[in-house]
Amino acid sequence: MPFFSPGRALESERSRRIYAVYELIYTAIDVAAALLFITGSLLFFQDETQTAGTWCFLVGSFCFAAKPFLRIAREVSYWRTGDYEDLARRADG
Q1: Which of 2, 6, 19, 43 has the fewest CB neighbours in a 10 Å radius?
Q2: pLDDT (0 to 100) of residue 89
Q3: Residue 45 three-state SS
Q4: Quick one: how many helices (H) and strands (E) in the chain?
């Protein structure tokens, strides 16, 4: 099965567990980024809190940047479950 295939989450109990853990982390990052951007926006309304707002935007941006790396980490976790035959078929074909 190719990397980033939605069907990987249903292959086994371990795959379902990996998928669930990574989805929880992915959702937590989304929520954190959204809250940081909302907070940053509110802090920008006053001159004395703009620096704190800028930091919120920066940290929120790092949250968004972490999401693709998290997806790659999930795929590596699937690969590490030991499905080397499938991996070899993808490499050959």
Answers
A1: 6
A2: 55
A3: coil
A4: 3, 0
Structure tokens at 64: 């968004």
pLDDT band at 85 (very low <50, low <70, confident <90, very high): low
Q: Which two tokens stand for residue 60?
A: 């929120």
Q: What is the CA radius of gyration of the chain?
A: 19
**Amino acid identity of 83?**
D
Query: What was the pLDDT predicted at 13?
Result: 82
Cα 33 off chain centre by: 11
For tokens 């990987």, the residue is: 8
Sign of the C-alpha dihedral computed for residues 45, 53, 70 and 13 taken in this order = negative
